[in-house]
Amino acid sequence: MPVDILAALILTTVIQSLFGVGILLFGTPLLLLLGYDFSYTLSVLLPISIAINMLQVVKHYNYINFDLYKNVLLYSIPCIVFFLFIITNIKVNIGLLIGLFLIFVALKNFFPRIEQSLRAMIRYEKLYLIIMGIVHGITNLGGSLLTALVHEQGHSKNITRVTIAICYATFAVFQLLTLYLIGYESGMPYTDNMLLLQISVVVFLFTEEFIYTQIDNQKYTQLFAFFLAFSGVLLIVKSLNF
């Protein structure tokens, strides 16, 4: 098993265990920087991301915002499938734009005008979800836009995480199906994939028990804002340097 993939996976699993996203959002650029191609990266990360998300959904399924989830199915998923099919072998870099947007969202609690602007933007939720689907299909970074959308809605930490988790898991399922239909096969041995999955589940359970349960709603909101800002900065840095 590649040690670099294992290290990246442990780090991103902790993040996904807290926020519902992370394995794809951070794991994708990390593995690309380590020299793995886009399709291989997806084939390694997608099953693990689905598994962690489904553990979160099973625990808090009664908190899911189903209105948002239905709209994601209608407006985001078709765009994800179509654009992943189109650009499987093409590199597109829009990290700078997404990074700036995440920082913009993270600052909403400090600047009332930003919060007003976001509310105005999210009134056009269907258009936002279509754009999110296009971005995720092309770059695998749509999770950043998903977290921004759910964070802006001001839910409790359980609603926030499980709604993101079920949407993100659905993203990943349709991405895997698309890769299967176009005939892509992962180069990683099955036993390595299973071992990575087992390690990720252990990391999730540890994070859930000793970190997530200790964070109240107010701290979670603050931590989530920091997560968005940090994600934005990383995407900007990556975009400018690569």
List the keywords.
mainly alpha, single chain, 11 helices
- Can you give the helix content as a percent range? over 70%
Low-confidence stretches: none
Pattern of helices and strands = HHHHHHHHHHH
Q: Output the radius of gyration.
A: 17 Å
- Total of DSSP H or I helical runs spanning 4+ residues: 11
Structural class: mainly alpha
Q: Rough shape?
A: globular
Mean pLDDT figure: 85
- The percentage of residues in β strands lies in under 5%
* DSSP E strands, number: 0
Distance between the termini: 27 Å
Largest sheet: none
Total count of domains: 1
Summarize this entry quickly.
The protein has 242 residues and is mostly helical. It is 78% helix and 0% strand.
Written overview of the protein:
This protein has 242 residues and is mostly helical. It has one domain. It is 78% helix and 0% strand. The protein is built from eleven helices and no strands. Helix 4 runs parallel beside helix 9 and helix 8 packs antiparallel against helix 11. The longest helix is centred in the C-terminal third of the chain and has 25 residues. It starts with a helix and ends with a helix. The mean pLDDT is 85. Keywords: Cell membrane, Membrane, Transmembrane, Transmembrane helix. It is found in: Cell membrane; Membrane. Pfam families: TauE (PF01925).
Write the layout of secondary structure elements.
Layout: H1 3-19, H2 27-33, H3 38-60, H4 66-87, H5 95-106, H6 112-122, H7 125-139, H8 142-152, H9 157-181, H10 190-210, H11 217-241
